[in-house]
């Protein structure tokens, strides 16, 4: 049974606000793919817009450019090995979904391949035509058209990170296959002045 529930578009930025390493999914015709990306961020609340660096040499970039769409999946800590694996291989050589046994769910708006098992959230995105930033900086801007999150870790527009949902804690790449997990939350308190 899926624990994923729709996330209001005005809350979509919160899914990647804290800089998790994400998976970028893509498809064009019968071709489909998934890669890892450490460099993504929200850039606008409403309409929800994001930016992600997708190197022009990747198969992902080819499919995203061809379809005008891509998916962002926020993997949980249970996906560390898999995240590194899809970030170290190219879809030009293998179908990573098949090779690594990744279950796909179909995005409701764009029909993109998305992942829910061991993942905290996903966003379906429509590419915004920004040729200059794509060519010069490999930075792709996109509008989020649908989003959902696992209700065990994201409820009513807010993350809940605690001991009960460790496999869904987001992961953050330090480099060379080392990750840290977002494992505890702390509420900022007003300082006395
Ligand atoms: C943890 C991790 C983070 C990565 N972050 C990015 C990124 O932000 N942008 C990027 O273009 N490539 C990034 N990469 C590299 C791509 O995932 C890698 O080039 C991948 O093989 C491309 O796959 P594809 O050719 O199937 O699209 C990252 C790799 C890893 C392992």
TrEMBL record:
Provide the cofactor list for this protein: FMN
What taxonomic ancestry is recorded? Bacteria, Pseudomonadati, Pseudomonadota, Betaproteobacteria, Burkholderiales
**Could you tell me what this protein is called?**
Flavin reductase like domain-containing protein
- State the Pfam families in the record: Flavin_Reduct
Organism in which the protein naturally occurs:
Caballeronia zhejiangensis
Q: Where is the Flavin reductase like domain?
A: 14-156
Question: Is Repeat there in the keyword field?
Answer: no
In which domain of life is the source organism classified?
Answer: Bacteria
The molecular function terms of the Gene Ontology recorded here are: FMN binding; oxidoreductase activity, acting on the CH-NH group of donors, NAD or NADP as acceptor
């Amino acid at each position: 049974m899926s624990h994923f529930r729709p996330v209001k578009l005005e809350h979509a930025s919160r899914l990647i606000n804290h800089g998790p390493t994400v998976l970028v999914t893509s498809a064009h015709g019968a071709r489909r793919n998934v890669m890892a990306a450490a460099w993504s961020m929200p850039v606008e609340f409403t309409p929800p817009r994001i930016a992600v660096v997708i190197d022009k040499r990747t198969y992902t970039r080819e499919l995203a450019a061809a379809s005008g769409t891509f998916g962002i999946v926020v993997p949980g800590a249970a996906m560390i090995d898999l995240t590194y694996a899809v970030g170290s291989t190219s879809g030009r050589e293998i179908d990573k979904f098949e090779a690594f046994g990744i279950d796909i769910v179909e995005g409701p708006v764009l029909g993109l391949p998305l992942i829910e098992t061991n993942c905290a959230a996903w966003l379906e995105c429509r590419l915004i035509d920004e040729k200059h930033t794509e060519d010069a900086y490999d930075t792709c801007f996109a509008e989020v058209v649908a989003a959902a999150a696992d209700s065990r870790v994201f409820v009513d527009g807010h993350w809940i990170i605690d001991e009960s949902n460790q496999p869904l804690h987001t992961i953050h790449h330090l480099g060379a296959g080392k990750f840290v997990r977002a494992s505890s939350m702390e509420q900022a308190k007003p300082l006395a002045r």
